[in-house]
Specification:
The radius of gyration is 40 Å and the shape is globular. The chain has three domains: 248 residues, Aminopeptidase, CATH 3.40.630.10; 178 residues, 3-Layer(bba) Sandwich (Glucose Oxidase, domain 1), CATH 3.50.30; 143 residues, Transferrin receptor-like, dimerisation domain (Transcription Elongation Factor S-II, Chain A). The protein is of the alpha/beta class and 792 residues long. Helix content is 44%, strand content 14%. Pfam families: Peptidase_M28.
Length: 792
């Protein structure tokens, strides 16, 4: 009994202390009720304590307390068995609640003063109730937004916003591009492209790109012969090489350019002596006028490059009956090229021995050493001046005078073409960055590398340095755990100079996969041709995205010149993907504005490497850096955006703009074009806008929408197009004409013939394309509607 009596004062003291701790806790709780921290746990414990206090204050509970006090001695035998000393005071208020059952004396002391605080207890209960309601609502809000913002497995790659795009691209530096460019240019001495291909593969692999591999094809190449071609004047007996230099070993030694590589690949070879007839640019009107004046059968046409595709003009000359062609560039169209010879390819694309199918082992090889019966020889403008006996000291009034052969004079020349045809191996370098959520959807980024046995300027090194710089920046981010949603395929094509052979063969090899899975093609062909102005060539569906990126980029630099964006034919490796797969395409390049205002298709000529000096145009490689970042933003937007940034309505608007003008038979196309626009507008508003709202972005709906977007342009691939014309009619011949190119050609063809059959065929092709596109959008809307009905 003595031990129990001695312990009572201590128990009472502990009760007082713990009651004091409760008051402090009551004062602290309201200030922390809005945070999910340790104080919230304390507030929760206090709720339990206050509930117990409420029970203690109920009527009849005092009698229970007194009875418990009177029976305290009877319970000593039971409590003595408990090890109460081992229970330590708790740090939180919950500790006092635990001692409530262990220290009866504390209960007695505490509850005797309870009746005095009944009004206060009611306030406490009211506060507790309000606090509980607030905490409950606050918890619901936190749970909702946490669930909404928490990334799911489908988006574990983390969607990059504009700031993260800039974090990737800010590592791109002009100095790094310059170093890479110089290293590549030093590999010019290689007799084939093997050394360069190995260098590119090693570089891309070292940067971390996955599965970098060589893809080789054995293809038929038309190469220069053992000696240069020549042109001899019969009147004087003078012999000249294509660059205008005399046919002598001494002159060839001192020449700054090898005349061997001034030739037309896949031209007929042999010798032809005939009269030279000036056909200017060789369009239908020129030929009609000349045929009315002279007999052109088996004669030699003096033809200017430009204004129309070379293959188309050669087809007209062949039909007219010409036997040979001397091809040149008028100095008025392209200054500083008068003394330069050049190379062209007469190959529409791919390996000539396997047209339409890949050059792989086991496939049948056709014997096609030449692709035209015409003898075609590119010559310099200085040689043309010698042929027409033009004095070099001709007076210049400030305006350029185009070269022209006098109609009353007759020139007979002997042209000799020597080429050889051999099977050679061309190499593509292909590397992959696999996508995370949609690895079966591909964005191809294509450049090209040096091709042996041909003229190649430094532009290939420029494009390869740019694509390597972008890979470097991208892989730095990948190493930190990020990946794009879709797979990015990086390609360096071989055999571009001979007719985009590498890209064509690869495309034909993987055609079935690409038709289903290819999303877009981004071209890095000849990115810096001048330091004048930024020029963008893109599909209509991508024009809005390109304009946005271009405007954003120029606003950062503080200067925003007029945006030059168009959908015109390009002479590069994008050809196959545009014309055979109907894939949206984009290309950025710095171009000479004056050159763009001149005749189109001058870029079909390939000049010697010293003709284009990249470091003179962009000494600090700032233009290269700008191109890399612009293309990088577009690539990231396409590869990582949840919704493909393709605009359906822009396609419909482009179709309507292409029907403006006074062309005959086009009124019948206006009504289908109007229906196409209505369907595109409905598709844009009903499907694309809701899908861009994250709350309505269901994965199944997004996938269906993207599948429709990536195939929009396929409806505009016509079955037949004139030689050199795009099968994808959304692209125009040049920036000066907005009409459908096949309609323009058919109209010109119709003027020279009594029949309009060709025009009717072209109109039917355009009509079928417009109708197919309209039905495509309508079918897409029907699919979404049926899905929604099925869910309901």
């Amino acid at each position: 009994m003595g031990e129990n009596e001695a312990s009572l004062p201590n128990t009472a003291l502990q009760g007082k202390k713990m009651a004091y701790q409760k008051v402090n806790a009551d004062q602290r709780a309201p200030g922390h009720s809005q945070y999910l921290d340790s104080d919230d746990l304390q507030a929760t414990a206090l709720d339990l304590e206050w509930d117990m206090e409420k029970e203690l204050e109920e009527p009849g509970f005092e009698q229970f307390q007194l009875d418990r006090a009177e029976n305290q001695n009877l319970e000593n035998s039971e409590t003595a068995d408990l090890n109460l000393d081992s229970i330590q005071p708790a740090a939180s208020p919950k500790g006092r609640f635990q001692r409530l059952q262990e220290e009866s004396d504390y209960v007695t002391h505490y509850t005797r003063s309870a009746p005095k605080s009944k009004p206060c207890n009611f306030c406490r209960l009211l506060k507790i109730f309000c606090t509980a309601i607030i905490l409950f609502i606050f918890g619901i809000l936190i749970g909702y937004y946490a669930h909404k913002k928490c990334p799911s497995n489908a988006t574990s790659s983390g969607k990059l916003d504009l700031q993260l795009y800039q974090e990737i691209l800010k590592t791109i530096q002009a100095e790094d591009i310059k170093k890479s460019f110089r290293n590549l240019v030093q590999l010019y001495k290689s007799e084939d492209d093997t050394e360069i291909s190995k260098k590119i593969k090693t570089q891309w692999t070292s940067l971390g790109l996955e599965d970098v591999q060589f893809v080789n094809y054995s293809v038929l190449l038309n190469l220069p012969g053992p000696s240069p071609s020549s042109v001899t004047l019969r009147s004087s007996g003078q012999c000249f090489h294509p660059n205008g230099q005399p046919c002598s070993q001494e002159a060839r030694k001192h020449s700054s350019q090898d005349p061997l590589y001034s030739y037309a690949a896949y031209s007929a070879k042999g010798t032809l002596e005939a009269e030279v007839i000036d056909v200017s640019y060789g369009n239908a009107d020129d030929l009609k006028r000349i045929k009315e004046m002279k007999n052109v059968t088996n004669q030699i046409a003096l033809l200017k490059l430009g204004k129309l595709p070379l293959l188309y003009k050669l087809s007209l000359l062949e039909k007219a009956g010409f036997g040979g062609v001397l091809l040149y560039i008028d100095p008025c169209d392209l200054p500083k090229t008068a003394n330069l010879s050049f190379m062209v390819s007469l190959n529409p694309g791919g390996d000539p021995s396997t047209p339409g199918y890949p050059s792989v082992d086991g496939n049948f090889r056709q014997n096609r050493s030449n692709l035209t019966p015409l003898l075609v020889q590119p010559i310099s403008a200085s040689l043309v001046a010698k042929l027409i006996s033009l004095r070099e000291d001709r007076a210049s009034s400030g305006a350029c005078t185009p070269l022209e052969l006098p109609s009353n004079e007759k020139r007979i020349v002997n042209m000799q073409i020597q080429t050889v045809t051999e099977f050679k191996t061309i190499t593509n370098v292909v590397g992959y960055l696999k996508g995370l959520t949609s690895p079966d959807r591909y964005i191809i980024v294509g450049s090209h590398h040096h091709t042996a046995y041909s003229f190649n300027s430094q532009e290939w090194a420029s494009s390869t340095a740019i694509i390597t710089a972008f890979i470097r920046a991208l892989m730095l981010r990948v190493k930190r755990g990020w990946r794009p949603d879709r797979t990015i395929v990086f390609c360096s094509w071989g055999g571009t100079a001979f007719g985009n052979i590498g890209s064509y063969e690869w495309g034909e090899d993987f055609k079935k996969v690409l038709q289903r899975n290819l999303v877009a093609y981004v071209s890095l062909h000849s990115p810096v041709r001048s330091n004048s102005s930024l020029y963008s060539v893109t599909s209509p569906s991508l024009q809005q995205l390109v304009a946005e990126k271009n405007n954003f980029n120029c606003s950062r630099r503080g200067q925003c010149p007029e945006t030059n964006i168009s959908s015109v034919q390009m002479q590069d490796d994008a050809n196959y993907f545009i014309n055979h797969l109907g894939v949206p395409t984009v290309r950025f390049a710095y171009e000479d504005i004056k050159a763009l205002e001149g005749p189109s298709f001058l870029s079909e000529a390939l000049f010697p490497k010293h003709a284009t000096k990249i470091e003179e145009m962009d000494p600090f490689f700032n233009l290269h850096e700008t191109i890399t970042k612009l293309l990088g933003e577009v690539i990231l937007q396409i590869a990582d955006g949840p919704i493909l940034p393709f605009n359906a309505l822009d396609i419909a608007l482009e179709v309507q703009n292409s029907l403006k003008g006074d062309q005959p038979d086009t009124p019948q196309l206006l009504a289908p074009a109007s229906r196409l626009r209505e369907s595109a507008e409905l598709f844009q508003s009903d499907e694309m806008r809701p899908a861009n709202d994250p709350e309505e972005r269901a994965p199944v709906r997004v996938r269906m929408l993207n599948d429709i977007l990536q195939d929009m342009e396929k409806s505009f691939l016509v079955r037949h197009a004139p030689p050199g014309f795009y099968r994808n009619i959304l692209y125009h011949l040049d920036g000066k004409t907005s009409q459908f190119s096949i309609l323009l050609e058919a109209w010109e063809h119709c003027k020279s013939l009594a029949s309009n059959e060709t025009l009717q065929e072209a109109v039917s092709e355009v009509l079928n394309s417009i109708s197919a596109a309209q039905l495509y959008f309508k079918a897409g809307l029907d699919v979404f509607e049926s899905v929604l009905v099925g869910k309901n």
